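Posting for a labmate who doesn't have an account.
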Amino acid sequence: MTPQEILSNIFGYQHFRGAQEEIINHILADGDALVLMPTGGGKSLCYQIPAIIRPGVAIIISPLIALMHDQVTALQQIGIRAAYLNSSLTPDQARFTSQQLRQGALDLLYVAPERLMTPHFLDFLDTTDIALFAIDEAHCVSQWGHSFRREYIELSILHQRFSGIPRIALTATADDLTRRDIIKYLGLEQAKKFIAGFDRPNIRYRVVQKKDPQRQLLSFLRAEGHQGDVGIVYCLSRKKVEKVADWLTNQGFIALPYHAGLPNELRKEHQIRFLREENIVIVATIAFGMGIDKPNVRFVAHLDLPKSLEAYYQETGRAGRDGLPANAWMAYGLQDVVMLRHFMEKSEADEQHKRIERHKLDSMLGYCEMTGCRRQALLNYFGDHLPHACGNCDTCLEPVAMYDGTEVAQKALSCIHRTGYRFGVHYLIDVLLGKTTARITQFRHDQVSTYGIGKELSKEEWQSVFRQLVARGFIKVDIEAYGSFHLTEQARPILRGEQRLDLRKEHKYKTSKDKKYSRSSRTNFTDSDQILWKNLRTKRLELSIAQNVSSYVIFHDSTLEEMVQQCPKNLAEFAQLTGVGNSKLQHYGKIFLEVLEKHTLKYSDVAK
């Protein structure tokens, strides 16, 4: 079959998206490729279709067991010969898969880089007919990438040992530095680069200043109508993960913790429940989610600041993979910055690595404090250009008010100087507000010129001022000195009155009904449609439980929506639905047509 025929007959899609077809043809012509494509953009098809067409087995290098399992299950559902080799298999299962490989009975084999790099497996591949190598989550190659895996760097052996076999490296997250590392370590200097836009227009970005983060999260979830939705909440520490999961459970959500400190079986159970159930909220550290292909995650929330825009982009990118509206919400505070910088300074990384990480954190903080379109800034960081404001982030929907903050900035910077560069934000605010505390009296800071000169602002407003001064590089935080503040050279023109500084005003988050961005309610559905939607989802869940697979492996929500809207009456019409290839038509067509027919008969009788 041609790529177009495979796309239509096997995968159930009528048209390629973006550069998919060009990439596929390039691989079929023995070319190497580097593919940067946003999450949900259809990267997998770029190697899956060539794997079906080219002779031999495609070796897919993938970092996570959960990702391998989900992709293999989805491929098997549509009749493709796929398997994986990893530590989750029993010895008998591993032997059976190896036997399939020897007999040429597989089109795709998913393996972890650790297994691939063993001498035994490499020797085995020497005797195997290989169609292509695909390196998924290729940003792991880079030490500056989101999730550094040393085994990925060793994958450079592929272009030396298997020089005639095409290689395709794929990622959704790579700035210029990470991109250069991928090319260098994988030997892809001669590969064709396919750089699609990074924009995820269906995701709405919102950032709020952290006050009472759990209450703020609850307010967001309720305001946006996310009760009963699938979502992910990221926290920085394991302790906080468990605390927030318990708290959300008490608020009526089905919330499960996930972090590396949980027993393996419990962690696995929570991940499986998240993948297979329709209303689970996972509360997790960043250990959760890379490569998770659950399409109907309606929100991703951060209760702590991610360490880089790469991490933020990848984590928020787990929302809305089905292309339907989704929310990315984050609460952050200055303490997040202090904690992350502390982690960086205490790490065993060399000075170059630390310097890069500091720069990345500064970019993350600048994103939080910006007043322009967040999407433009996020895309610009990855070298992508959006010529106009997106209209779908908080700063576009509710433009930030600015004011001449030169005088208050001078007061803040002068207070740091007058108190001797020994104190953090809370103490400095107390001095500016003229509070009488034992520490202030002890250090005689009630006698400095900045004592009590900041009473025109509240504590919260002063916190915003200090956050913005840190974000813009006028103040640096001394981690070794318990988070004390120091002035940078950039602060001098402000103190001297040589430079005006505009600051953003504190903004209160309000969501009116017309600004909700949740698709849970399917507002375009009639009452009858909502009932049919529920019945179709119930049938899908029954089938997934019976087969021990995730619901979306049967059909995505978008396919069920098409069933509701088009209500096909026979197999020919059912075959026209997006995501319905020959195999799924054969296995599920009559089952879902029966649900549709029963609904139509019932409600036509009611209408009569």
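Reply:
Got it, the structure tokens are right above this. The first strand starts at residue 33 and ends at 36.
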